Amino acid sequence: MCLAIPAKITELKEDRLATVDILGVKRDIALDLTPQAQEGDFVLVHAGFAIEVVDAQYAQETIDLIKEFPELAGDEAPQPQPAAAEALR
């Protein structure tokens, strides 16, 4: 499952790039899909791209859910059981 994580734009850069704060971590992302995004806006980030500008309340509600269920944002994916893995071959 893939999630889009809310992030706050902290700096606009050249070539439609921006620095965002995602749960205290700074990342550079592309704004190609959200050219209207401005510094201070909250955006949903997926695979290094801002995919939607969202309001601060929605962003905070989503961040609160992620904090409540940290496994939603983790990079651990369920591993197939040996029998299921054999069936995939």
What does this protein look like?
With 89 residues, the protein is an alpha+beta fold. The chain is 22% helix and 35% strand. It has 2 helices and 5 strands, in the order βββββαα. A 5-stranded antiparallel β-sheet has the order 3-2-1-4-5, with helices on one face. The longest helix is centred in the last third of the chain and has 13 residues, at 56-68. It is globular, with a radius of gyration of 16 Å.
Secondary structure layout:
Elements: E1 5-12, E2 17-22, E3 25-30, E4 42-46, E5 49-54, H1 56-68, H2 82-88
Antiparallel strand pairs: 1-2, 1-4, 2-3, 4-5
Low-confidence segments, given as residue ranges, are 75-81, 83-89
Cα-to-Cα separation, first versus last residue: 22 Å
Oligomer designation: single chain
What percentage of amino acids are in beta strands?
25-35%
Spatial strand sequence of the major β-sheet: 3-2-1-4-5
In total, the number of strands is 5
Mean pLDDT: 83
Largest sheet: 5 strands, antiparallel
What is the 3D shape? globular
- Counted by DSSP, the helix tally is 2
The proportion of residues forming helix, as a percent range, comes to 10-25%
**Radius of gyration computed on alpha carbons:** 16 Å
> What structural category arises from helix and sheet content?
alpha+beta
- Element-level helix/strand string: EEEEEHH
